Amino acid sequence: MMSVAYDFAHSPASEFMARPQHLLIDGRRVPASSGRTFKSLNPATGQVIATVAEGNEADVDHAVAAARRAFEGPWRTMRASERGQILLRWAELLKANAEEIIELESIDAGKPISATLRQDFPAAVDTLIYYAGWADKISGDVVPVRDDALTYTVREPVGVVAAIVPWNFPLMIGMWKLAPALACGCTIVMKPAELTSLSALRIAELALQAGLPAGVFNVVTGPGRVVGDALVNHPDVDKVTFTGSPGVGRGIMKGAAGNFKRVSLELGGKSANVIFDDADLEAASKAAASGIFFNAGQVCSAGSRVLVQEKAYDEVVERLAARAKSLKIGDPLDRKTALGPVISEKQMKSILDYVDIGQKEGASLVTGGTRVGERGYFISPAVFANVEHEMRISQEEIFGPVVSIIKFRDEADALRIANGTAYSLAAGVWSRDIGKLQRFAKRARAGTVWMNTYGYTDVRLPWGGERDSGLGREHGTAALDNFTEPKAVWMNLAV
Ligand code: NAD
């Protein structure tokens, strides 16, 4: 992964944030057709940081029409290697503007800058470079069928893609959708989450500067129920790629049925991190803490359930509580901060409600779970012990810094509990017994299994889940399948 030296003393993002944030359609910054705007807040302070255009159905129409023109025009017909070169130039421009983008993302999403530096930004650039490399390597096969015919396949871009992105990793998850779609020759209308619109607008400008033709990447900011819904129901959108909550995901599948859009969904999780008695408890507890408290627990694959075998239970509870207490909560722009705010007042209230629910259900709150300060949306990391599998805090996604520690007896019990929610995104397992690890990995209902580690992702490996965790996979070659359609071609050799 790349590393960059940073000096934030001059606040590189301030100039961009001070500008009115327009939509980006057909290569131009334009106000919303209604003239309406909304405010973007800094979750660390609750203060307004930017004024953003509030798009509507008419803006979506314009953006989709621009994306269609660009698809039929320059983008799909361009040499694939040239498409790849443009994406690589874009990656260089992102790197050249790293300080600004990192600061922007940290302020807008309340992310500790140490994490944006180490993960969000480098992962976004890595994703772009990885798929830029794929642009001219997407090929079909010659498939011999009969002697008097030449039969082969080609893979064609699906067309106009609507990318709907959440607020927890706006830049990185946005790039998980943009890079493969563009490499495959698709064009895009992106709708960032209304809480975090800024990085998408900035990187779209840099894409134009890199030579991405007008209309290839459009950004329409605004509310999900208006802009997102209009995209999902638009008859000229061919594919929706969505990351967000299962509730919205269900609505997207229904809306997409109108013209049978292709759909891929990355939804929620309630991932189990399973610690057997024979594990390295120090390493497991350390990883379990970062597995739930990273990004203030607002991570789809957060290890929000820590399952611990009977003998190790008390020790892991103690270690996790100690780690929770030691995390530095504070200003996301301070490099020493480990835990920033949660994204909004609404999210903070929802998390604090779950802390109440857990206590009412009879779980023991060992530490944390209270608001910190009166400014911004900070919550102290919460550790619940004596959690029963059936409790709501064990079944429902809280999406905040709250961990439920559950006791289990043996392998069968661990699997029953780990697989016993509506989700199946990820799971972790800790043991010194390789057989135990493998048996768990084989039977876990999860798109990703981590053994003696937790939380890693890489664009080269498939990412996603089933049931309430979604449909399809992102990353790797799976994403190339998401954005291409195979075509079979028969050529009669007998004429
Ligand atoms: P959300 O579903 O409320 O919003 C996600 C996006 O959908 C936003 O851009 C929002 O504006 C838009 N949206 C809202 N209503 C819409 C509608 N009716 N039609 C179309 N679009 C609409 O989720 P969120 O609050 O932004 O993110 C949190 C959720 O996302 C959590 O449940 C989390 O688990 C999930 N998530 C999953 C992954 C993953 O990779 N599986 C990653 C990040 C977040």
From TrEMBL:
User: Taxonomically, which superkingdom?
Assistant: Bacteria
Q: Report the Gene3D superfamilies cross-referenced here.
A: Aldehyde Dehydrogenase, Chain A, domain 1, Aldehyde Dehydrogenase, Chain A, domain 2
Q: Which residues form the Aldehyde dehydrogenase domain?
A: 33-489
Any Pfam family? Aldedh
Task: Cite the entry's keywords alphabetically.
Answer: Oxidation, Oxidoreductase
Cited InterPro entries: Ald_DH/histidinol_DH, Ald_DH_C, Ald_DH_CS_CYS, Ald_DH_CS_GLU, Ald_DH_N, Aldehyde_DH_dom
The molecular function GO annotations come to:
oxidoreductase activity, acting on the aldehyde or oxo group of donors, NAD or NADP as acceptor
User: Is Lipid biosynthesis given among the entry's keywords?
Assistant: no
What positions constitute the catalytic site?
Answer: E266
Name the family: Belongs to the aldehyde dehydrogenase family.
This protein is called what?
A: Betaine aldehyde dehydrogenase
UniProt source species: Bradyrhizobium diazoefficiens (strain JCM 10833 / BCRC 13528 / IAM 13628 / NBRC 14792 / USDA 110)
Q: What gene does the UniProt entry assign to this protein?
A: betB
